[in-house]
Amino acid sequence: MELRHLRTFRAVLREGSFLKAARALGLAQPTVTLHIQELEAALGLELFDRTGRRRPRTPAGALLAERALPILEAVDSLSRSMAELRDGRSGLLRIGSIEPAASERVTPLLGRLRKARPDLRVRLDVSGTGGVSRGVADGDLDVGLCSAPPLELGLRFEPLFAEEMALLLPRGHRLARAKPLLAKQLEGESLVMTEQGCSYRQAVESALASRGVRPRWTFESGSTNTLRAAVQQKLGIAILPRGAAAPAPPGTVVRRLHDLVIALPVGLATRTDAAPAPPALALLVQALRRELGR
Fold it and tell me: I need a labelling partner for 208 at 20 to 30 A (CA). Which of 51, 102, 181, 189 fits?
């Protein structure tokens, strides 16, 4: 029993005759007749009553229609789905990203991509660089947008842009109006910071240490929104990605250090042994390079 035989059988049922089925399929009538004969030979049963001009189903034909046609519809649906996946119209994109890149850069891009390809499904995991890069290394994510992943994971890293950091201070803080605002003025200041191991925190601590500055942290959280709220409550100064610091929430101001630029390279993390990207993922990666690249 072959699929082409079943498709011919379905056409005869729909059209009511071998001649009309041949026209619908773009085949010669003898070919339709041959397909039905080969199908009947494979089953050992006649499927149509050939005594009249029309071709009513025999009991065997009725049973075959009941059991086989749903299978044929499922096969056709699967073929359509595979075609959509092949040309990038559908499929699942599994992406990981750090903040604020996830909300400010990746999400708008995904919105435009899905508008053009509404059958795409997207899973966006938001985590720190450690979590994102581990997800890529384990195969749980197709691509990650993060800072440089740990070397031991063996991932390929392609820098796209530098996430510049800025200071968020309570409006009444003594440094809120300092001109110029220098790195050494942060000596001994209370900082609210992201959690230990966070790439942003490592970049801040390393940059300040290069200037001999030793601020003290008084509050830490993995949520940039919580850090913004902490500054509003005058728990300390935050050094955050500029996109997360601005616009400044009520009661705070955003400042930049005059003598020190703190920036974190952010880019694509992918597996070196990954299979060729399916079309939808390739489109996403191209868009990330085009829109986020320096």
Answer: 102
